[in-house]
Design a protein that fits this description.
Strand content of chain A: under 5%
Largest sheet of chain A: none
Chains: A mainly alpha, B mainly alpha, C mainly alpha, D mainly alpha, E mainly alpha
Number of strands of chain E: 2
Radius of gyration of chain A: 21 Å
CATH class of one domain in chain A: Mainly Alpha
Shape of chain E: globular
Helix content of chain A: over 70%
Number of strands of chain A: 1
Distance between the termini of chain E: 42 Å
Strand order of the largest sheet of chain E: 1-2
Number of domains of chain E: 2
Largest sheet of chain E: 2 strands, antiparallel
Number of helices of chain A: 6
Number of helices of chain E: 19
Structural class of chain E: mainly alpha
CATH superfamily of one domain in chain A: NADH-ubiquinone/plastoquinone oxidoreductase chain 6, subunit NuoJ
Oligomer: heteropentamer
Chain lengths: ~170, ~450, ~110, ~625, ~500
């Protein structure tokens, strides 16, 4: 077994296990930590696939910034207690059943796929920062600029929602 | 391209207007000027005058269809601003921010009007959606508004996930994000393409609130401040449909036979669920939410058929549906009580407003000589033209008949019942005039739809 | 020459995606649900990168200078951008709701129904 | 003269219009002049026309006026046919009609002028319709008149419209007539499709080309029409009820017009009937049954007009028997003589009623002989005529029928004879109860008894004369050389068909012997009646046993009520309340309710729970996948 | 001078429309009424004048066509041919009569009332004259909407529910019609809505069956035919009488007209296939409606059910596609309009004075109002098709056609003749004859205007009953074309 394959299986197992733990942890804080774990595993995958830029961004933006934000909010709300009431058994069963069948169906449909990924030396340059950066600022400059609108609107939105206004609550 | 940039810039401008002036009226006027300006530059682009010459690598490209769609939407927004400006001013402490969000949405819609790549589709839809989550929750002290925002946000994000999965599979199959690229290749659907298509179908159905992906709609429309419900239900929904239409035409046009059955099922379900559930509603606002689902069902027919009639009809439908719904919501937003009974005897107190509203309702119900009739006419024509799905047309007309039932409850309340509510309503002369103008536009399009459809 | 079939990645991604969905369906805490959605997005990211790689490998066989596959990786980048924006707004909404009802349990979101 | 034929119906129509529109303005005198004048004028014109037709070598004339319906392959002319048969009827109708009009001026004097004018307007319209019926040159024009008399009888029977039961009688008359009319109408359509025309000339000339089955069908349907109009089983019950109208109206309906329409129609289409023996037999059977049934009922009636009414039904039955056995002339002959004496009897009865202040129960009369001499004499003549005593009119016509019946089948003869005997009995029962014995009414009535004024007695006298001499135009061959004037006169139109192989061939001697026998029996009957009813003390107690059945008219009205009227009302109420409201409308409303119900159920899907929304979405996606990936691929 | 004038059809539409629109802006009720009367009389004048002018020698007497929606393949085409003339004449006659009968202060907001009425007239005229399917459909709806408002605003107690049912019912029907029209449109060679283009469409058998069904449902609901009739009695009862008059006198003819102009010529094969079954159902419905009418204790409902039976007869006649029946049916459409108008006038007068429509609560009106009674009796006997009244001619011809089609059907249908006599005479007996009851004490006979209108109606009843020839001359060519199309397939 090649090291890549071993890593692949290890990271896959890690990702899946951590993902399950995200779902099944009673404590939200644990969920966040397990999610960070998933992201790390995914980052590992990116590295295997030689997508270095994404690996870094994933680590910094996702696992770093975003998850910290989550953690912060959870801490802020003091939700670390295992107080969340559970959904009904019926719902859980239905959820697992539908999720499982979705997966089974898709796997059944795709089982004959014959694409593959190899990591030959010298072929993986597209995932490098230099390469991606060049494309991003030439061919993809328009979407890049446009996503600034997205950020602007997210910013304005956060401001609108975050500003404290009247205190009377209408229900 | 003109419209994207100008509306984005105007959105930024609106942000700063809030600092410059505290006079909400001024803000509204600036916004009004903005949408007019966007409308004008968009129209100029249609006439061939493009201010920006940017190489988008084919990710954005505007043709007449897209630009006319954009014009219709922008025009609807203009009507919306004219009729609902006051309400936007009242909606929050700083209307300038809300206006800014609306302009960002317009920018997103303009992207939708010309996307040629799944990436642009994705970004466009997100630019539309994210400000909408905010608008839904803009009445912060109202728990219903909070709830609507959170529901909308959670389900919207979920559907984004679905959509991305679809895009991923399409990419896996085609190796490109360009719509033509997806449509290229062999004539048959590969499993991966099929999966991608179904996922996209589901997520787009979600965006246009087609059954069974419509469940967010009534709750969110109901909880959102009325003035933004109006915007959401008309302009944004039109954009969703345009994206849907364009996506399936450009990316899956070749496979129409493969997705038509699914689309027919979705359309039929949407029609049935939307119309039937609307029957029982006692609140006009919630009834209109369901009716917007019902109308979506009709528009789904256009997507299902995807022929020349469908495209002409969609444009007409956007105009007819948007203007009429905006008109009704504009009146509704003046009411504190949204129940149907609140409209009792309305025609006696405010004949002109009631008449204009009547025209809007008739248009929604698809009564001839209103634009709504020709909109439905085109949809039916498109379905029948398609040949083997006559049953769908029959379902559609039966549902249209049901729709008459709930729309006319409002008419009955307005015209045939005695006034029962003490609520005193004020309608400024300009409001009445503009509403009448909207009604006249509906009538003109109802008598001569060629004015709009002839542009294509 | 290590070769990993693309299906492994597809299945991995689907599994993550499904776990995300199950999480969305089973949990009541809005934040956790949101996190599960993030999980779904990441599943997509993995898949996109894998496809990017797959196409690249295929194209590389004939053209050594090919940039096939770049677009998917950039797409992933944009997904992250959007996710960030979403998180901003989403958390703002959740916080706003929390301020009002002191809970983030979505089962309490039942004022709007029928 | 024939170019003025249109005047004959037109004059009464004009009279109708003048009296009808001017009823609030015209004086009573003017009403009289217009009402009676138009009829007399019409009678004069009829006479002139008759002279022309009676002249040797006269041929039937069809006079066209305008296209009534000319479209879609239909060509129906508004045209008149003037021939022997129609002119004969014209004379009877206008003649007796005139007398009845004159009579009415006195009989109806109590009415206020507008109503009086209305009455005359109706009478004129009635005569107009009847004339139209007779004059038409095709079945459609006949049908127009046919329904017209139905309408007028409705109007006249219900003349006193404030009385509900009169209105019911009027309605019954109209509806029963309508039932018959439907048969007539279908016959018309059948003829149209068979012969392509309904003009008499075309139909009769092509009749022999049609299959017998078709002719049988057509003739039976025609006969159904005649049943209604001429009050035959089973559609006869309207006629006795029709006595609700003023008495002159009864005279008009029963004697000169309306009820004879059926006879006229069959006589007119004798060509068809002759070719359809099955229908002929049917007519004969129905005719004789009606005659017998009505005669039995008449035996026990106490209302003076009812007795006469049933007698009419019975006589009509005899006429149909004549038609049925192919003796068309005999039928027409009896129509004529019957017109004379039945008009006489009715008018006489009217005179009695008039004198008795609208008392119609014969049990409350008696001994009127002295008080009403003219009425008494004329009434007696009428009775003798109807009973068939020679040389009164009834004798000859009835004899002709009996002879024809005998030649066809002895059973017909026996039954017809029985009818005649009963006729004699009940007529003289009526006569004796009314005129002999002692007065049984109240003192007040007795005090006011008086003979009627001249306008009433004059018609009585004229009719009495006619009842005496009217029969002489059809004296049978046994009595005179130049016999059968009438049948010779009618021969161009009505071919009396003797059976090729008559059941019994009669020599003159045996014919005479039979007549004598019959006469003897009739006289016995009269004597019996006189024994029983000219006594001082009459048993006025309610009849019991079989006579109760008879006096209740065999309970036929009750039977109809039970098997026709009640079920129809029940069905109608059932259809309206259950089928229409609950079932059909319920279904329609059910659709609405169904939608509302599903609305209520469907909206429960909208649970407000994000989880369930997403779950449904997932399920949908899974189903879509299954469909798209495994069904299609 | 007029020989070259071809715009009669357009005038017939624009005049009522203009009158209607003007009327909306008039505040004074008297003026509004005057305007309505003037415009309806003008329309009638134009109609009468047009009878004497034919643009060509052919069966098309006047025809115009304006460009409207060229991209959609629709043009604003109107025609006045034999069939149309009869119906437009009816429409033109009915409206002035209705307006004359409505007293000035009867309805609040009279300007809207008259405006909507005139719009209805415009719609009706358009339906009858349209040569373009889309125009036909638009007018079909245009005629419906104002009536809905008229009935719902000014109707009786249960008006909202009853008229809504009527509206939805007919709306569903017309939507089916729309689908049919669109399908036909797509089948035309050059994408046109014109009648001529529709005539040239070649459809397969099965297609014809489906299209037939779609068109037929719409027309059947409008007429209405059993068992789709349940909207009618309620609607007639609840609508204000002027509206009911328009509904029953003219509007139900839209369905029959649809059969003649659209259904028979377009789908002859399907007609051939289905007509026996349809006729049987209709005839059963006729008898059914007549039986139900016997039970009714409400004048308005009685008239409504009677109308169902009569309309059924006409429809049955049309489906025989026998020339004689078709001619008869067209004439009968006119006659029925006139007759039922008279019945409604009487019913309305009674209701107005006594406030009662219950038959059993009335009695003895004849004594109080002899003039009214005369008119009523004439109208009633016209209603049961007594000879020398207008209805006899039509019904005679229709029955003849039915007989030619299937004798036993004609025989069964004949039952309705008898039953019609039963319920009509029952009504007369109960309401007009008998002793004067308390409700009609103080009943006043008709005034001059009412007498004038009723005289005109009576005149028409008798004229058509005695001398229908002018009508046949007017229509026979057009009807002949319809029959020929059917015969030659």
């Amino acid at each position: 077994m090649h090291i890549n394959e071993i890593l692949f299986w290890f990271l896959t197992a890690l990702a899946l296990f951590s993902a399950m733990m995200v779902v099944f942890s009673k404590n939200p804080v644990h969920s966040v930590l397990w999610l960070i774990m998933v992201f790390m595993a995914i980052t590992g995958h990116y590295i295997i696939m030689n997508a270095q830029f994404l690996a870094i961004v994933n680590m910094i933006v996702y696992a770093g910034a975003i998850m910290v934000l989550f953690l912060f909010v959870i801490m802020f709300m003091n939700l670390n207690a295992e107080s969340e009431p559970q959904k009904s058994k019926w719902m859980k069963f239905a959820a697992v059943l539908s999720g499982g069948s979705l997966m089974l169906i898709l796997i059944a449909a795709l089982k004959d796929n014959d694409g593959f990924i190899s990591s030959m030396r010298g072929e993986g340059s597209i995932g490098l920062i230099k390469n991606l950066g060049k494309v991003l600022f030439t061919d993809y400059v328009v979407p890049f600029e446009i996503s600034s609108i997205l950020f602007l609107s997210a910013m304005v939105g956060a401001v609108v929602l975050g500003k404290k206004e009247s205190s009377t609550i209408v229900s | 391209m003109n419209a994207i940039i100008l509306s984005a810039l105007w959105g930024v401008l609106m942000m700063y207007t809030g600092f410059a002036t505290k006079n909400t009226r001024t803000v509204s006027v600036v916004a009004l000027l903005g949408v007019m300006a966007v409308l004008v530059v968009n129209w100029m682009e249609y006439l061939g005058v493009s201010f920006f010459n940017i190489d988008t690598k084919g990710m954005l490209a505007y043709n007449g269809f897209g630009l006319i769609f954009n014009t219709v939407v922008l025009f609807s927004t203009l009507v919306y601003f004219l009729l609902s400006g006051r309400e936007i001013e009242k909606a929050g402490k700083s209307p300038s921010d809300l206006y800014a969000l609306i302009f960002f949405i317009l920018s997103g819609i303009s992207i939708i009007a010309g996307f040629k790549s799944l990436l642009m589709l994705f970004i466009g839809i997100e630019i539309i959606s994210i400000p909408l989550y905010v608008l839904a929750g803009s009445d912060k002290s109202n728990l219903k508004s909070n709830e609507a925002a959170l529901k909308y946000f959670l389900m919207g994000s979920f559907s984004t996930g679905i959509m991305l999965m679809g895009i991923a599979f399409l990419y896996g199959d085609a190796g490109t994000f360009y719509l033509e690229g997806v449509n290229a290749g062999l004539g048959a659907l590969t499993p991966m393409k099929a999966i991608g298509m179904v996922l996209l179908l589901a997520s787009m159905s979600f965006k246009v609130s087609a059954a069974p992906f419509h469940f967010w709609t009534p709750d969110v429309y109901d909880g959102t401040p009325t003035v933004f419900t109006s915007f959401m239900a008309t302009i944004v929904k039109s954009a969703g449909f345009f994206a849907f239409l364009k996506l399936f035409e450009a990316a899956f046009g070749k496979f129409q036979a493969d997705w038509q059955v699914l689309m027919a099922v979705v359309a039929a379900l949407t029609l049935v669920i939307g119309n039937i559930t609307a029957v029982f509603q006692q609140s006009v606002k919630r009834m209109l939410s369901y009716s917007s689902i019902a109308q979506a069902g009709f528009m789904m027919l256009g997507i299902f058929a995807m022929n020349i009639f469908a495209k002409q009809g969609m444009i007409l439908y956007f105009a007819a549906y948007s203007i009429a719904t905006i008109g009704i919501f504009a009146v509704l937003s003046k009411f504190k009580d949204h129940s149907i009974d609140a409209f009792n005897g309305f025609a006696k107190k405010h004949p002109l407003v009631a008449f204009s509203m009547l025209i809007c309702i008739l248009s929604l119900a698809g009564i001839p000589l209103t634009a709504g009739f020709f909109a439905k006419y085109y949809m039916l024509l498109a379905v029948i033209k398609d040949g083997n799905f006559l049953w769908l047309a029959i379902v559609a007309i039966l549902c249209a008949a049901v729709s008459v039932y709930y729309y006319f409850r409002v008419v009955q309340a307005m015209y045939f019942k005695e006034p029962s509510h003490e609520e005193e309503l004020e309608f400024s002369p300009s409001f009445r005039f503009i509403l009448l103008g909207a009604a006249i536009i509906i009538l003109v399009l109802g008598i001569h739809p060629d004015y709009l459809t002839g542009l294509l | 020459m290590p070769v990993i079939p693309i299906n492994y990645y597809i299945f991995l991604s689907l599994a993550l995606f499904t776990i995300g969905i199950v999480g969305v369906l089973t949990r009541r805490n809005a934040i956790i649900i949101f996190m599960c959605i993030e999980l779904m997005l990441n599943a997509v990211n993995v898949l996109l990168v894998a496809f990017s790689k797959m196409h690249h490998v295929a194209a590389f066989a004939t053209d050594r200078a090919t940039t096939v596959g770049t677009e998917a990786q950039l797409f992933v980048f944009f997904i992250m951008v959007v996710a960030a924006a979403e998180v901003t707004v989403g958390l703002a909404i959740i916080v706003m709701l929390y301020r009002n009802i002191h809970s983030v349990d979505i089962n309490f979101l039942n004022r709007l129904k029928h | 003269m024939s170019k003025y034929v249109f005047l004959i119906p037109l004059l009464p129509l004009v009279g109708f219009l003048i009296n009808g529109l001017g009823r609030n303005f015209l004086s009573r005198m003017l009403v009289n002049i217009v009402g009676c004048g138009v009829l007399i004028a019409s009678f004069v014109v009829s006479l002139l026309v008759f002279r022309e037709v009676a002249a040797p070598g006269a041929t039937p004339m069809v006079i066209r006026y305008f296209d009534f319906i000319k479209a879609g392959g239909l060509d129906i002319q508004a045209s008149f046919l003037v021939d022997q048969l129609s002119t004969l009827f014209l004379l009877v109708i206008t003649g007796i009609g005139s007398l009845i009009h004159i009579y009415s001026t006195a009989y109806m004097h109590e009415e206020t002028t507008p109503h009086y004018a209305r009455y005359f307007a109706y009478l004129n319209l009635f005569v107009f319709s009847m004339l139209l019926l007779v004059l038409g040159s095709n079945f459609v024009v006949m049908f127009i008149g046919w329904e017209g008399v139905g309408l007028c009888s409705y109007l006249l029977i219900g003349y006193w419209f404030e009385n509900k039961s009169y209105n019911n009688a009027a309605k019954k008359a109209f509806v029963m007539n309508r039932i018959g009319d439907l048969g007539f109408l279908l016959a018309i359509f059948w003829m149209l499709s068979q012969f392509g025309s309904i003009a008499y000339a075309d139909v009769f000339s092509k009749a022999s080309t049609a299959p017998v089955a078709v002719l049988t069908g057509i003739t039976i349907l025609l006969f159904v029409g005649a049943m209604g109009k001429s009050a035959q089983i089973p559609l006869y019950t309207w006629l006795p009820d029709a006595m609700a109208g003023p008495t002159p109206v009864s005279a008009l309906i029963h004697a000169a017009t309306m009820v004879t329409a059926g006879i006229y129609m069959i006589a007119r289409s004798n060509v068809l009937f002759t070719l359809a023996p099955v229908s002929q037999n049917l007519i004969a059977i129905i005719g004789i049954s009606t005659a017998l049934l009505a005669a039995t009922i008449a035996l026990k009636q106490n209302d003076i007009k009812k007795v006469l009414a049933y007698s009419t039904v019975s006589q009509l039955g005899l006429m149909f028997l004549a038609l049925g056995v192919g003796a068309y002339t005999a039928g027409v002959f009896h129509v004529m003589t019957h017109a004379f004496f039945k008009a006489l009897l009715f008018l006489g009865a009217g005179s009695v009623i008039h004198a008795m202040h609208h008392e119609q129960d014969i049990m409350k009369m008696g001994g009127l002989r002295k008080k009403l001499p003219i009425t008494h004499i004329t009434f007696l003549i009428g009775c003798l005529a109807i009973a068939g005593i020679p040389p009164f009119a009834g004798f000859f016509s009835k004899d002709e029928i009996l002879t024809a019946a005998l030649e066809k089948h002895p059973v017909y003869y026996v039954l017809a004879l029985a009818t005649s005997l009963m006729t004699a009995f009940y007529m003289f029962r009526l006569y004796f109860l009314t005129f002999s014995g002692k007065f049984r009414g109240s003192h007040e009535q007795e005090h006011h008894l008086h003979e009627s004024p001249v306008p009433m007695t004059l018609p009585l006298i004229v009719l009495a004369i006619l009842s005496v001499v009217g029969g002489w135009i059809g004296i049978p061959a046994v009595f005179a050389e130049n016999a059968h004037l009438l049948s010779n006169f009618l021969s161009p139109v009505v071919a009396s068909v003797k059976p090729a192989h008559p059941a019994i061939h009669l020599s003159h001697t045996s014919e005479l012997a039979l007549m004598g026998g019959v006469l003897l029996l009739i006289l016995v009957m009269i004597v019996l009646a006189s024994k029983k009813f000219s006594k001082e003390n009459i048993d006025t107690s309610a009849p019991s046993g079989f006579s109760a059945v008879l006096s209740n008219k065999w309970y036929v009205d009750e039977l109809y009520e039970a098997i026709v009227v009640k079920p129809i009302n029940w069905i109608s109420s059932f259809l309206s309340r259950v089928v229409d409201n609950k079932l059909i409308d319920g279904l329609v409303n059910g659709v609405g309710k169904g939608v509302q119900f599903s609305a209520r159920q469907l909206r429960l899907l909208q649970s407000g729970q994000v989880g369930s929304y997403i779950l449904i979405m997932m399920v949908a996606i899974i189903l879509f996948f299954i469909f798209q990936l495994f069904w299609k691929l | 001078m007029f020989a070259a004038f071809d715009n009669f059809p357009a005038l017939l539409i624009w005049l009522p429309l203009a009158g209607g629109l003007i009327s909306f802006f008039i505040k004074s009720e008297k003026t509004a009424r005057a305007i309505a009367i003037v415009f309806s009389l003008l329309t009638m004048g134009v109609m009468m004048t047009s009878l004497f002018f034919s643009s060509t020698e052919s069966f098309v007497y006047n025809q115009v066509s304006y460009v409207w929606l060229p991209n959609l393949g629709s043009s604003f085409g109107l025609i006045l041919d034999g069939l149309t003339r009869v119906l437009c004449l009816l429409t033109a006659l009915v409206f002035p009569m209705v307006f004359l009968l409505v007293p000035g202060n009867r309805y609040p907001n009279a300007n809207r009332f008259y405006g909507l009425m005139l719009l209805t007239q415009c719609g009706l005229m358009g339906v009858f004259m349209a040569t373009d399917a889309l125009v036909f459909y638009l007018f079909w709806e245009l005629a419906l909407i104002p009536v809905y408002f008229l009935a719902s605003i000014w109707g009786g107690e249960k008006r909202i529910k009853a008229t809504f049912k009527f509206f939805i019912y007919t709306f569903v029907g017309s939507l089916f019609l729309l689908i049919g029209i669109l399908y036909m449109y797509l089948k035309t060679s050059n994408g046109s809505f014109s009648l001529v283009a529709f005539y040239n469409v070649k459809l397969s058998d099965v297609e014809q069956y489906w299209m037939f069904l779609l068109f037929f449902i719409a027309f059947a609901i409008k007429m209405p035919l059993f068992p789709l009739h349940t909207w009618q009695p309620e609607a007639y009862e609840q609508a204000p009488t002027p509206v009911t008059m328009v509904l029953s006198a003219v509007m139900v003819k839209m369905g029959l007209f649809g059969l003649l102009r659209w259904l028979l010529p377009l789908f002859p094969l399907a007609v051939k296939q289905f007509n026996t079954a349809i006729i049987v159902v209709i005839v059963v419905g006729m008898v059914y409606a007549s039986l139900v009418a016997i039970y009714q204790d409400n004048i308005k409902k009685l008239i409504a059910y009677s109308s169902i039976a009569h309309i059924g007869l006409m429809a049955a006649g049309v489906f025989t596609v026998k020339s004689v029946a078709l001619n008869g049916a067209v004439l009968q459409m006119f006659s029925h309009g006139i007759n039922i108008m008279a019945l409604w006038i009487v019913a309305d007068l009674i209701e107005k004075q006594t406030g009662v429509t219950k038959i059993s609560a009335l009695g003895g009106i004849a004594k109080k109002a002899p003039k009214l009674t005369i008119f009523l009796v004439i109208a009633a006997f016209a209603n049961i098709a007594l000879p020398l009244t207008n209805a006899f001619v039509g019904e005679f011809m229709i029955f003849n056609g039915l007989y030619l089609f299937k004798p036993w059907i004609a025989a069964f249908a004949g039952l309705s003749i008898i039953l019609s006599a039963v319920y009509t005479l029952n009504m007369i007996k109960q309401v007009f004859y008998g002793e004067v009851v308390a409700t009609v004490e103080g009943y006043v006979d008709i005034n001059k205007t009412q007498a004038m209108v009723l005289t005109v109606i009576t005149g028409l009843i008798l004229f058509v009953g005695i001398y229908p020839d002018p009508f046949f001359k007017m229509m026979y060519e057009t009807v002949g074309l319809i029959v020929n199309r059917y015969v030659t397939i």
